[in-house]
Amino acid sequence: MPSDAALAALNDRLEQITAALRLMVATQQTHTEMLAKLIEAATPSVESPLEAAMAEIAGALRDQTAALQRVETELSGLGGEIESGVMRGLAGALGLADAGMDDDGTGDQRGQDSDRSPAEPGSGRHPEC
Predict the structure, then answer these.
(1) pTM over the 0.85 mark
(2) Contact, 51 vs 45, CB < 8 A?
């Protein structure tokens, strides 16, 4: 039969193992709770405010993209319109409005004076402009 000292040492060792197992079970329980929260967060939910916010942001981005495309379309022809308006205004200021200016104000007189240089008098072109 084992001595009292040997039984006491065995009992202490058993208590240490039991305490270690209790700590391990508590750690596993904590890990289980953490994993459950991670799974819950990763699972899509109909009630998730994040999902609704992301959908709202995506919609706003689509609206902004469409607006930018409309602006780009409007601006694409603006250069020609400005040039035409400037040419009409210039032709009017120089008194060339009746001197064969096209509707767009460019003064393209095909076949007329096309062989003259811009500085030549009577060419309809003014080097100072």
Answers:
(1) no
(2) yes
